[in-house]
Amino acid sequence: MPLTIYNTETKTLETFTPRRPPVVRIYTCGPTVYDYAHIGNLRSYVFVDILKRVLLHQNYRVQHTINLTDFGHLSDDGDHGEDKMLKGLQREGLPLNLESMRNLSDRYITAFQEDCQALRILPPTTWSRASDYVREQIRLIKTLDLKGYTYETSDGVYFDIARFPTYGRLGNIDLESIKSGARVEVNPEKRHPADFAVWKKGELGWDSPWGKGFPGWHIECSAMAIATLGKQIDVHTGGIDHVHTHHNAEIAQSEAATGRQFVRYWMHNAFITFDNTKISKSLGNTINLRHLYDRGFSAGDYRYWLLLGHYRSPLNLTFEGLTQAKQALYRLKRHQYEEFAGQPGVVSENHMHRFFSALEQDLDTPAALAVVWSVVREKTMTPGNKFATLVAMDTLLGLGLQDEKQTGLQTLGVISQADIPTEIQDLLQAREVARNSQDWTEADRLRDVLATAGYKVEDTASGQRLLRDDHI
Ligand code: AMP
Ligand code: ZN
Hints:
Blueprint: E1 4-7, E2 12-15, E3 23-28, H1 39-57, E4 61-68, H2 84-91, H3 98-118, E5 126-129, H4 134-146, E6 150-152, E7 156-159, H5 175-181, E8 196-206, E9 213-215, H6 217-229, E10 233-239, H7 243-258, E11 263-269, E12 272-274, E13 277-278, H8 289-294, H9 299-307, E14 315-317, H10 319-340, H11 349-360, H12 365-377, H13 383-397, H14 408-412, H15 422-436, H16 440-452, E15 455-460, E16 463-468
Parallel strand pairs: 3-4, 3-10, 4-5, 10-11, 12-14
Antiparallel strand pairs: 1-2, 6-7, 7-8, 8-9, 12-13, 15-16
The structure holds adenosine monophosphate and zinc ion.
């Protein structure tokens, strides 16, 4: 079956065909690196990771760029609000200059790449950092200028959307209502309120034909997509909030400059809320992976939780929901390493076909996970075949079912005999005696005592087994 994906531009599910197979070119809007990426941001990179794994499985060669915005992103996607990088510098008491901006972003780029690695996101072929591509951005603005798509004002250079008749085609923007609804005082020099800055004049920044300043936020993605992937790319991804302003601006700039269709398929992930509230710095409820680690969750738990939802469905994170995901992933690994591992087997083509067909339907990860569990529960399959099939499925899901091969039991939290403190061993021994004499009341009491001490005891066919509580 062919891969079908939902294209935001046509609002339909379309069969995926790249321009120049076997290569697929993907551009992903990356984070603004003035702080840690929050868990909502991370969904944008997990969903494209699934897309890449599906394409790699279909033997495409994937060229993928994720950009890193290290200047110029204002808190409002239009041309208003505070500059996020400057806000980061102020927050950390750093001087407002290009060098400290670079240092600040170095730190958060490293943190973001660590997050991606922890989430088992395959690295892109190119990480493009906006401040490394200022020349390309200036060149693109010059081209737009020469072709008559821009005009200069006292505070910058603006893209004139009236010169680009299909402006706003992503998400069907109603330009007339934007015009009549706009606040006049915002920027009287703009010809249309939806015109956007391609250059912002200022005391800080780089030299350009329009004076010192910064490229506008949108131009960075057009310039870096063209520089790293070419004038026409297959897939462009990002969060749903980017559709109206950022991505319409990218289309206008790129197509005005090159005269060709910029992107074939636009893909957008829906938002994550936390406790039914928008994740936002101003509301003080940003939550990142480190907060999850502090609560005893792993990046893998979060990835599993994300895959339980379809990338186009809004999801609300709660610690209860994440705990359920953690337990499910833990059970999956337990089955894999304690029941299925260690025996020869082959991949079940039938299950694999059902699994892959789900992913080919616009990356339906919840349906794919349902097939994973049907393998676990399958009555007629041998443990070896289950193991092989789950490993094959995991090359697409990236849950780490292969990596634990060597250290399976240890990472699952099963404690070796030598590491059990004497008093706990005594309690276990007493419980064994109670069990043997079928004194279930005493056995249950001792289980509770062990639980209070931070240990979970399980009764298995081969006797009692002790687990660290933080792995449950
Ligand atoms: P930013 O650093 O603001 O440019 O955002 C990085 C990526 O995260 C972009 O693709 C955004 O669209 C996306 N994003 C931002 N907030 C959320 C959220 N709450 N849920 C899902 N994606 C988000
Ligand atoms: Zn972008």
